[in-house]
Amino acid sequence: MGFPVQRMRRLRASEPLRRLVRETHLEPSQLIYPLFVCPGEGIRREIGAMPGNYQLSVDELVKECREVHALGLGGVILFGIPESKDEKASGAYAADGIVQRAVRAVKKEIPDLVVITDVCNCEYTSHGHCGKVVNGEVDNDATLEWLAATAVSHARAGADIVAPSDMMDGRVAAIRKALDANGFQRVPILSYAAKFASCFYGPFREAAESAPQFGDRRSYQMDPPNAREAMREIELDIEEGADIIMIKPALPYLDLIRAARERFDVPLAAYQVSGEFSMIVAAARNGWLDRERAMLETLIAIRRAGAQIILTYFAKDAARLL
Ligand code: PBG
Asked: Where are the domains of the chain?
């Protein structure tokens, strides 16, 4: 029984009808807004490659978080730009490090805003790699100690969720063990479980001042062609104790979001990364794309693929439209 009995256009005739049969919804509570915190006071420095995003000092960050809270977003994820970098990534796990100070300030002013912290070393090492460099290579096991110490220091400052993004093997287990040993059994881990060595992080590295000074991240981040390996990465992270898993970037990896959704019953997040944001903004500035429509279409595509949480630099703009 096909045409003319079946007419797919019947339910597309008006916005109320389209709304009635819409299969996927986007809500502010599903969006996480990434923020960059830097030393100083009264600082709001726009990031060249990410228009509308800023390096913020702690006082400005708190203002921003009030706005995020008022918009009903799911939360924020914080990245730090430390006073100084060294070989040991000291700033990452210092009790009074930039992220630790920021978390304390935000949680004090806006206690019920969910604050997630990115746990990684690349913003804090002088060489810009995500781990300890030994004989020119990133040493996995030595890096685990730094990550565990960083996660504990974030939890101590009041972080609601810690999110390791370094792609070292065994980091979720190491972080879980350290959190538990320090009385933070209730702090969940959002693991960047399948994170690819992607060119789409380019603008972020300007924002976080974290470009590697030699080589690249391909010995720890995943090789873009590998889908089965992504499922193994996720499976291992769940076994190690990840509470939420994440795929990153988002739009070029929708197939993996769908595959992970079907395979794993844990909350699934996706990160619409800096390059995904900046290319839409750049095209819109040229008059080649409609900014709002491109934003909403990509976000709904990520939801439709199966991600229930989206980290996106569009979070505030999207929330205002929804
Ligand atoms: C830290 C980290 C990166 C991003 C999130 N956490 C950069 C990288 O791995 O080089 C990228 C986020 C973005 O591009 O928006 N390791």
From this structure: 25-246
pTM: 0.97
pLDDT in tens, 159-197: 999 999 999 999 999 999 999 999 999 999 999 999 999
pLDDT number for residue 166? 96
Query: Which superfamily, per CATH, for 25-246?
Result: Aldolase class I (3.20.20.70)
Determine the distance separating the centroid of ligand 1 and the alpha carbon of 201, expressed in angstroms.
6
3-class SS string, the chain: CCCCCCCHHHHHCCHHHHHHCCCCCCCHHHEEEEEEECCCCCCEEECCCCCCCEEECHHHHHHHHHHHHHCCCCEEEEEECCCCCECCCHHHHCCCCHHHHHHHHHHHHCCCCCEEEEECCCCCECCCCCCEEECCEEEHHHHHHHHHHHHHHHHHHCCCEEEECCCCCCHHHHHHHHHHHCCCCCCCEEEEEEEECCHHHHHHHHHHCCCCCCCCCCCCCECCCCCHHHHHHHHHHHHHCCCEEEEECCHHHHHHHHHHHHHCCCCEEEEECHHHHHHHHHHHHCCCCCHHHHHHHHHHHHHHHCCCEEEECCHHHHHHHC
Tens digits of residue pLDDT in 69-125: 999 999 999 999 999 999 999 999 999 999 999 999 999 999 999 999 999 999 999
Residue nearest to atom 12 of ligand 1 (CA): 273
For residue 243, how far is its CA from the centre of ligand 1 (angstroms)?
Answer: 20
Measure 22 CA to ligand 1 centroid, in angstroms: 33
Which residue's CA lies nearest to atom 6 of ligand 1? 165
- Of 165, 171, 312, the one to substitute when testing ligand 1's pocket (max ligand atoms within 8 A of C-beta) is 165
